[in-house]
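Exercise 3.2. Students should predict the tertiary structure of the chain below and write it as structure tokens, then compare their answer with the key that follows.

Predict this chain's 3D structure.
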Amino acid sequence: MRDNLCKYLAEQYPTAFTQWLLNDVSENVSVLKTELNLEPIRADAVTLVQTQHCILHLEFQVEPEPTLPLRMLDYWLRLYRTYQCEIVQVLILLRRTRVQVPDVFEWPNTTHRYRVVKLWEEDPQQFFAIPGLLPFAVLGKTNNEAGLLQAVADQIRQIASKQTRQELSTIVQLLARLQYSKELIQAIFREGMMRESVIYQEILQEGQREGEKIGLQRGRQEGRQEGRQEGQLEGECTLILRQLRRRLGTLPDAVVQHIRGLSLEQLDALGEALLDFQDFNDLAMWLDSQPNR
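Answer key:
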């Protein structure tokens, strides 16, 4: 799932990656959509970015794979055979590991090298100036994890575009789970980034108003509390449904109603799980696995 998030970042912000890894600040950058014939390249982890001078091959991994060196050579050969240009290969490791990760494939008469970037050894400050790279900052080198996470959250809040702000906030929170506790992430983001959503605020206010109406019979304080809870639930549900429709298309009314009946904890789990969904069957299986609310 996390490598999918990184692939998404690279395809949405290719110039950010060429600036970071190639020191190329030109705007003449495009994402290649290709399977290179033969065996298809694993679409869940690989991104190919073409610049004026070369092709940048990005591989994202949470855990290093033993077969990677040979696969990097295989990718290089297929790319060079197709494009006949310089190929720069970079493996980006997301989670700290003590395993020795090779940066070369060696065999008699054959040596092939590629670059390995370990995010936990990278200075997070280099990612702050480029929004497309900001999610990587939370996985950077630090002696103050809470302080770094808070600094990233503060930086996201300064992004002018609401859609970009919400999108990067979601990716940051999901990547941060590789290194931070869920409680810390929620403490910094849940009450800040979610609540600044205009849609969320509108639903929250509607829930508060409805709760206060009920509270005329149960007591004003009780009604306000119920309104806040219902507004939060409805706000989260609306955001999850938007993400599902973008990924899977139109949802049956029965499924929408099922999702609206989920608890906050279940909606939070669905928000993470949906990034791995390939089709509607994956959603249906996930919903079937959930206990009734």
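Discussion points: DSSP finds twelve helices and seven strands in the chain. The longest strand covers residues 54-61.
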